[in-house]
Design goal:
Elements lengths: L2 H12 L5 H12 L2 H21 L8 H12 L11
InterPro entries: Anit_sigma_mycothiol_RsrA, Znf_put
Organism: Nocardia halotolerans
Protein name: Mycothiol system anti-sigma-R factor
Length: 85
């Protein structure tokens, strides 16, 4: 799993929205990747801050879905497949 994919799914993990297999795969990667665990820590702190500052308010219905869509649109993952000569 590459770092781009891990960082794209960090919020799913923080929100408890990924399945156990995905959680384990993300955790396994972060256990061995310092930049990703650092990014995870920053995201975790940001989520805590947002929760403290905005925790009592409820967003309009549909906002969460629109935000998730925009986040996924902003992430570009490029895969290169090797062919045998």
């Amino acid at each position: 799993m590459d770092c781009t994919a891990v960082l794209a799914d960090v919020w799913l993990m923080l929100d408890g929205e990924c399945d156990q297999a995905t959680r384990e795969r993300l955790q396994e990667h972060m256990d061995h990747c310092s930049p990703c665990i650092e990014a995870y820590g920053i995201e975790e702190k940001l989520k805590g801050l947002l929760n403290r500052k905005c925790g009592g308010e409820h967003a309009p219905e549909g906002l969460r879905d629109r935000l998730k869509l925009e986040i996924h649109r902003s992430i570009t993952v490029t895969r290169v497949e090797r062919t045998e000569d």
